Structure formats: structure tokens, C-alpha cells
């Protein structure tokens, strides 16, 4: 490359850009679908992958300037002109995530437009879906590089150094890189797998400062300032093989060459928490079941938190019920929220989808947790798993009556598996043995799926027991019944209940009318304004967050200093 500096100063060498699901999303019925009910994102899936933050910090630490643009969020606020965005770019590299397949359409459109206006600026793709589909993606003339695998920080740094030296010869030696030589794909192979997560996010202030700097373009999701959740990744890889998950042990092994899990040390986790604590009072999510690191590991985390008297709101993930000793160890930690996903009422189906554990074990856990002072338990169920039928969905929702009766601390959620079974997941690779039928296999069919007018047509799967329309209809039923149970058990108030029910009614009716041949655009216009004013995920969040003014001032100061020319 000749280089591309000098047009307009974006003050960064690399920009990380997160696209919306597709650039027609605002005028498509996708906005109506209840497919993001249990994540802090709208159906535009505006939350960007955590890897943006770790890569940005790694590059900054080694002397490169970076910036994150959450184009999906900007697009949600207003119909931004992507061409206008692209013409203003003046950077050495544009990095676009295709981590979750829902962004297939948005990421490809974005890359194409950026290349159109900046033919000399290299475009990089990364993320787990890019890793899976790298051969198909690199054929696009507007994608120059793909970094495969789950360890992109170091390869990206090497790529940046090669780009700055304008030395194409160096590309040959960059691990995990897929690139083009004379128009042909060169795959350097996955040769770098990070084994020590302590080398990632060395400066713990970077993440909260990035997230809390009130820089609207880089906020992770809509409503973040009102309900921030800050992540701490404790592990890379996973020890389970959930049927529909593209982040399973087998995926990491086969597609990322990860032979063993990489952990962040308890010492670093505690240091992260201590740092984040000073920025305010908001939930901090320790991502990954701490028990994967062994007993000594999770005990050291719990003890470190208590020794340092960290009083953050801690969100912990359990992949399966824990022993009583786990709760006893966390007793004395100020505020704890536990998340657990039994997926379904039927224990055999649960074993097939996730891992085997009994309802009795789950209930015991909830009781032990409450006795030990757990403040909140979030229990997640799913619609669309193999073997589930209408009756089983109903049994699952009914079962939450029992769970919610155990204590006020318990909150239950149900959501459809939508829109995609992850490419590379066990069910995607061997659908018939897992009870699934996969309907779309390649990138382009997923691109088209996200442009569908009805959400059943966007689903890339059906099961032997539930077709796509049945998954949709069962979802509406289950969500309505779940809302009712939440109201009865006083997890939501009357107004929240009415809002949820109204939202579901509007969405279901719109979907039905479109399915029956109604004009999607007209129907969308009719219901969208009403839908936008209705919140559906209030009980996802935990208490009222408070951001510390001192922390935010520090973030602002740091930002201003970083703009000075020294
Ligand atoms: S869904 Fe299952 S396989 Fe995927 S990350 Fe979670 S526990 Fe691991």
C-alpha cells in the first residue's frame, strides 16, 4: 500500500468498526422480532465483541492509536450515511468484526463501501464466524486480511507493523493471517494461540475508560449509560460442548487450534475488579464459569475479592449447579448475581443440549445460594432445542412457578434460539445426530436470512420436533406466559407486564400479517413507533447503577491528554 494518510485526521492508526445486522435493519421487520430478549442488545445486535477492547488496548500499549466505532449503535440512533462515514476515513487499517453470524450482511456491506471509497486502505475481518468461513470470505475483493482463531492481539500487532513498514514480504510470517498474494489466498495457518490471559488488558483502566468515556460512538449497546455491565473475561475457550454453540470446546479445538483453556489469573481478576470498582457502582460480569480453572482457582478469586473488600456487584456464571462449598466460599462477598442456564425442564433434553444435571440439583443450588447471601439468581431457558415440543415448552414455563417460589432472589427468562445455530457448533456440523436440520450453510444464505421479512424465515434451523413456524408461535406463547408468571411472583409490576404483553402482541400480529402477504414496510411503520417506546428487558438489569464522577473525569482527562501531540 502507498498509505492513505492526509485526508482527514481520525487520530488513529486502526479503527475497529462494528456493523449492524444489516444496513436495511431500520426499515426491515427485524426490529419487531423478539430475538434479543435476554441480551443487552436490540435486534440490531449492536453489542460489539469484547475482542475489540483487548485488541485496542494491545495495540495502544505498543504505540498504535486506535478507535472503536459502534456503527450499529450509531445506525440505531439515526440512519447514518455509511458512504459519508467511509469517505472521511484516514486510517492505516479498518478492522471489522464478523464474530456472530447475524452481522454477516452488515459486515460485508460495510467492507464493500469502505473499499469503494478507500481502495488503498486494507480491510481486516476477524471473529469466530470469520474463522469458520475464512475461505469463503477472503474471495471477496474488498477483504484483504482475515485473522483466524481466538488470539488476534499479537498477530494484529505484527500485521500493523508490516503495514506501517509497507513490507508485504512480512505478511508471510504473521501467524493466523489469511491474505492474498497475486490474487490468491495465502493461509499462514493458526500458529499463535494465547495461553496466558494476563498479557491481555495489561492496563486495567483502559476498559472502563473506553466504556465509560461517554464517547457515544464506542458505547457497547443502547442503554449502556443507564444500565452498564462491564465484562471481565476470565478464560478463553470452553470446557463444554453445548449443541448449538460456536464457542464450544470442539469449535475451539478444531477451528482455533486451542488445546487447553487459557485463564486470567485470580490476582489479575481481583486487580481488574478493584480498578473497575472506582468508576462507579455497576455490575461486573466475570465471564466463564470460574470452576473451569479448578477449586484452587475459584477459591483464590473469592478470597481475593474478600481480602480486598471489593464491594462491586459481581455477576458469576455457572455452567451447571455448584457444590454447597462454592456458595459458602462466596459468602461474605458483598453482592453476587449468579447466572445459570438449565435450558429446559426435561433433564434428558438438557443433557443433549448442554450437560446433564437434575432439576433437584438446580433447586438445591438456588436454596444454598440464597442461604449464603446471593442477591440475584438469573435462570435461563430456551425454545428451539432438539427434542422439545409444544408440551415441553409449556412444562418449562410452568416449572418456573416452582423456581420463582423458592425465593424473591430468583428471576427466570426464556428466549428462542434465534436466529442461528452457530456455524461450527456440534449441531451445525452433525445436525442429524443432534436432532437438528440446518437450512443455511454458507455465508450468502445467512446474509439473505437477515433480510427476511418474517422471523421464521430468518431461522437457519428447525428441529425434528419443531418446525420454524412452530418455534416462532411457541416463542410468543412462552414469552407471554413467562411475563404472567413474573407478574404473579412480583418480579415485574403491572405496568411492566402490560408493556411486555403489548410488545409481544404487536410483534406477533405484525409477523402474522407479513406472513399472510401484508406489505412489510407499511406494517413496520404502523407498529414501530409504539414498539420503540416499550421497554422489554427491564428485569434483565440489576438495580440502579451509579457511575462515579471522579472515574469519568479521569476518563475524560486521559482522553484529552491522548489527543495532545506528544
Ligand atoms: S453455551 Fe455452552 S459451549 Fe457455549 S460458551 Fe456457554 S457453556 Fe460453553
From TrEMBL:
Q: Which SMART domains match?
A: Elp3
List UniProt keywords, sorted A-Z.
Iron, Iron-sulfur, Metal-binding, Methyltransferase, S-adenosyl-L-methionine, Transferase
Q: Which residues cross the membrane?
A: none
Q: Which Pfam families match?
A: B12-binding (PF02310), Radical_SAM (PF04055)
The cofactor required is: [4Fe-4S] cluster
Which molecular function term from Gene Ontology is one that the record holds? cobalamin binding
Q: Where is the B12-binding domain?
A: 35-170
Matching InterPro entries: B12_SAM_Ta0216 (IPR026447), BchE-like (IPR051198), Cobalamin-bd (IPR006158), Cobalamin-bd_sf (IPR036724), Elp3/MiaA/NifB-like_rSAM (IPR006638), Methyltransferase_Class_B (IPR034466), rSAM (IPR007197), rSAM_sf (IPR058240)
On the tree of life, the source organism's domain of life is Archaea
Matching entries from NCBIfam families are given as: B12_SAM_Ta0216 (TIGR04190)
- The protein, known as: B12-binding domain-containing protein
- What are the leading ranks of the lineage? Archaea, Methanobacteriati, Methanobacteriota, candidate division MSBL1
Amino acid at each position: 500500500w502507498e498509505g492513505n494518510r492526509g485526508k482527514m485526521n481520525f487520530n488513529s492508526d486502526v479503527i475497529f468498526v462494528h456493523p449492524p445486522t444489516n444496513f436495511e435493519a431500520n426499515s426491515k421487520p427485524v426490529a419487531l422480532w423478539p430475538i434479543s430478549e435476554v441480551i443487552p442488545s436490540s435486534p440490531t445486535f449492536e453489542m460489539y465483541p469484547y475482542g475489540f477492547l483487548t485488541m485496542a488496548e494491545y495495540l495502544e500499549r505498543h504505540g498504535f492509536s486506535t478507535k472503536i466505532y459502534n456503527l450499529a449503535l450509531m445506525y440505531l440512533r439515526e440512519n447514518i450515511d455509511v458512504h459519508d462515514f467511509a469517505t472521511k476515513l484516514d486510517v492505516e487499517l479498518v478492522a471489522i468484526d464478523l464474530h456472530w453470524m447475524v452481522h454477516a450482511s452488515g459486515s460485508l456491506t460495510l467492507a464493500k463501501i469502505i473499499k469503494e471509497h478507500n481502495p488503498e486502505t486494507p480491510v481486516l475481518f476477524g471473529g469466530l464466524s470469520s474463522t469458520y468461513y475464512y475461505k469463503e470470505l477472503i474471495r471477496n475483493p474488498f477483504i484483504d486480511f482475515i485473522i483466524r482463531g481466538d488470539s488476534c492481539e499479537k498477530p494484529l500487532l505484527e500485521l500493523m507493523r508490516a503495514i506501517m513498514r509497507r513490507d508485504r514480504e512480512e505478511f508471510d510470517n504473521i501467524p493466523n493471517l489469511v491474505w492474498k498474494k497475486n490474487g490468491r489466498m495465502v493461509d499462514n495457518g493458526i500458529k499463535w494461540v494465547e495461553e496466558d490471559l494476563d498479557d491481555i488488558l495489561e492496563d486495567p483502566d483502559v476498559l472502563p475508560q473506553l466504556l465509560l468515556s461517554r464517547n457515544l460512538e464506542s458505547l457497547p449497546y443502547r442503554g449502556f449509560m443507564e444500565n452498564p455491565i462491564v465484562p471481565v473475561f476470565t478464560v478463553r475457550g470452553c470446557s463444554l460442548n453445548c449443541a448449538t454453540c460456536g464457542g464450544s470446546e470442539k469449535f475451539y479445538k478444531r477451528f482455533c487450534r486451542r488445546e487447553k483453556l487459557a485463564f486470567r489469573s485470580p490476582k489479575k481478576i481481583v486487580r481488574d475488579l478493584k480498578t473497575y470498582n472506582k468508576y462507579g457502582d455497576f455490575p461486573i460480569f466475570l465471564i466463564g464459569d470460574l470452576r473451569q480453572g479448578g477449586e484452587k482457582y475459584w477459591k483464590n478469586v473469592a478470597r481475593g475479592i474478600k481480602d480486598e473488600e471489593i464491594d462491586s456487584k459481581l455477576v458469576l456464571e455457572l455452567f451447571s449447579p455448584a457444590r454447597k462449598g462454592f456458595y459458602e466460599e462466596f459468602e461474605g462477598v458483598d453482592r453476587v448475581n449468579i447466572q445459570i442456564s438449565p435450558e429446559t425442564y426435561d433433564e434428558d433434553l438438557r443433557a443433549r443440549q448442554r450437560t446433564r444435571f437434575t432439576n433437584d440439583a438446580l433447586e438445591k443450588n438456588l436454596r444454598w445460594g440464597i442461604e449464603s447471601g446471593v442477591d440475584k439468581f438469573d435462570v435461563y431457558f430456551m425454545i428451539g432445542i432438539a427434542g422439545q415440543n409444544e408440551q415441553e415448552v409449556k412444562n418449562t414455563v410452568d416449572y418456573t412457578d416452582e423456581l420463582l417460589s423458592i425465593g424473591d432472589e430468583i428471576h427466570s427468562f426464556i428466549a428462542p434460539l434465534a436466529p442461528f445455530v452457530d456455524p461450527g457448533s456440534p449441531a451445525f456440523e452433525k445436525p442429524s445426530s443432534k436432532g437438528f436440520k440446518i437450512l443455511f450453510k454458507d455465508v450468502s444464505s445467512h446474509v439473505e436470512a437477515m433480510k427476511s421479512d418474517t422471523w421464521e424465515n430468518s431461522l437457519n434451523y428447525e428441529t425434528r420436533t419443531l418446525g420454524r413456524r412452530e418455534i416462532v408461535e411457541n416463542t410468543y406463547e412462552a414469552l407471554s406466559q413467562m411475563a404472567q408468571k413474573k407478574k404473579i411472583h412480583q418480579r415485574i409490576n403491572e405496568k411492566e407486564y402490560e408493556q411486555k404483553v403489548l410488545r409481544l402482541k404487536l410483534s406477533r400480529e405484525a409477523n402474522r400479517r407479513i406472513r399472510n402477504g401484508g406489505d412489510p414496510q407499511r406494517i413496520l411503520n404502523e407498529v414501530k413507533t409504539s414498539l420503540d417506546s416499550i421497554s422489554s428487558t427491564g428485569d434483565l438489569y440489576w438495580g440502579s447503577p451509579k457511575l462515579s464522577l471522579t472515574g469519568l473525569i479521569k476518563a475524560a482527562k486521559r482522553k484529552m491528554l491522548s489527543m495532545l501531540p506528544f
